[in-house]
Design a protein that fits this description.
- By secondary structure, the chain is an alpha/beta fold.
- The protein contains ten helices and seven strands.
- About 50% of the residues lie in helices and about 15% in strands.
- The protein is globular.
- About 45% of the residues are buried.
Length: about 250
């Protein structure tokens, strides 16, 4: 069997990097995309190569289809085709509802939703031809219970869950599964400053398991979903939140 190749968007740090590393541990070649963090992306790439697995790094603008097509072209030149798509790249923004501008809304939807749509649309023909593919969309608990100061972010992540289900309905018969993962509070650099506040510490204390999740836990879930053992799982949202959703 040929080696599988995964495209992990936003794989230079945080959850994306954790996913890339866990896939590499399974022998999957990894294409890592980044926007600005080239150095961190290259460090992740070198870590993967040290495992004896191939990896490349490519800059990508998630809201630009030309940029997306370039990533796919370069990836196919290196690996032949992309078997696994992990739509992880996203932005977040804390703003009160009344202060969200049209530009804020459009940018959020463009990167968090239209980016995954474009990538999926561009990669599906090859997956259909090979009758095998795995699409994993990284959503958020915010997409399930709404947002207070992140209404546009929560809306984009909710839409991503619905997009996941739609793709599953249409393409699962071609051997292509489509699933979402909805993380809760995960221990990354992005939320470290927030969690150092009194309000942040209270958030952690209110998690039923009494701790943050880890990027390894999210990455391990992705590694399972792309395996043959998970071939009967499609259209699902896997909640990795320590019990936050049911307790909220």
């Amino acid at each position: 069997m040929k080696s599988l190749t995964a495209l992990v968007t936003g794989g230079s740090r945080g959850i994306g990097r954790g996913i890339a590393i866990e896939l590499a541990k399974k022998g999957v070649n990894v294409v890592i995309t980044y926007v600005k963090n080239k150095v961190e992306a290259e460090h992740a790439c070198q870590e993967i190569k040290s495992m004896g697995v191939n990896s490349i790094v490519i800059q990508m603008n998630s809201n630009n289809r030309k940029s997306i097509k370039n990533v796919i072209h370069l990836s196919k030149m290196e690996f032949g085709m992309i078997d696994i798509l992990v739509n992880n790249a996203a932005i977040a923004q804390e703003k009160s509802f009344n202060s969200i501008t049209d530009d804020d809304w459009n940018q959020m939807m463009s990167i968090n939703l239209r980016g995954p749509f474009c990538l999926t649309q561009e990669l599906l023909p090859d997956m259909i031809q090979s009758q095998w593919g795995r699409i994993i969309n990284i959503s958020s608990i915010g997409g399930q219970w709404g947002g207070y100061n992140q209404v546009h972010y929560a809306a984009s992540k909710a839409a991503l869950i619905n997009f996941t289900q739609s793709i599953a309905r249409i393409y699962s018969g071609h051997g292509i599964t489509s699933n979402a993962i909805a993380p809760g509070l995960i221990d990354t650099d992005m939320i470290s400053s927030e969690l150092n506040t009194d309000a942040g510490k209270e958030k952690v204390a209110n998690i039923p398991v009494k701790r943050l999740g880890t990027v390894k836990e999210v990455g391990s879930a992705v590694a399972y979903l792309v395996s043959d053992e998970a071939s009967y799982i499609t259209g699902q949202t896997i909640n990795i939140n320590g019990g936050m959703l049911f307790s909220g």
